[in-house]
Amino acid sequence: MKTLEQYFQDQPLLSEDTGPGTSPDNLTSAEEAFLKKYLGVGDKADAHAARIQTVSPEQVMAGLQTTDAAASESVPKRAAPSLSSSPDASPPQKSLREQLELQLIGFHLANQDYALPIDVVQEVIRAVEPTKLPSAPAFLSGVVNLRGRVTPLVSLRMLLRLPPGEDRFIIVCRHEGLQVGLQIQTVSTMHRVKQDRIDWAVESLLGVQSEMISGLIRAENQKLITILSLDHLVQSLVIA
Fold first, then answer.
1. CA distances from residue 189 to 1, 68, 105, 137 in whole angstroms, order as listed
2. pLDDT top residue among 66 and 168
3. What is the pLDDT of residue 89?
4. In CATH, what class is 4-78+88-238?
């Protein structure tokens, strides 16, 4: 059975949708807060678009369609969500514990397994070079203008204090009005998980890093799969 990464690599690239330009008129409140925090851009931004590199990434996966299969050789696709409509809309992250089953996209990083709720995943692209930010924390690799949106690129290796390595893909997520790219090693598979296999009480197990993790999945092979908290990550990027 093919992995998701193998499937994506075998598919023709999707057509590029550059979207609207990054301008003060179409920034979300989260984007404004991020730019103000890291670039000193005020309410009346003037030339910040010229300071952020616009990229034309190779898209290897559009947002996934819900299916009953946990993993398949023929993963269906749907069109990428429109970025210009309801830019501040976000999936109901707080309701994850209330759902009978969760669907997540899994990925590897430093030989460890991680996952994100499928509703927050917008697309997966190949690695791109970001514009570096002055005085940014080590985990913030930089920022790009991706399909017309301000997009911070986050090194999960640095954030989670994992060993160094090559991250060849970026999972692009959309949450609370901010588009964020998470640099990863490889995508792996889709998970369909019942609530009784998820442990949400992770504070006592993971210590100082627990704020970045919302839950742990007990996989059938006895491995633990870490569910990352996009809520906390976005807040750390926009709150001064």
1. 11, 13, 6, 30
2. 168
3. 42
4. mainly beta
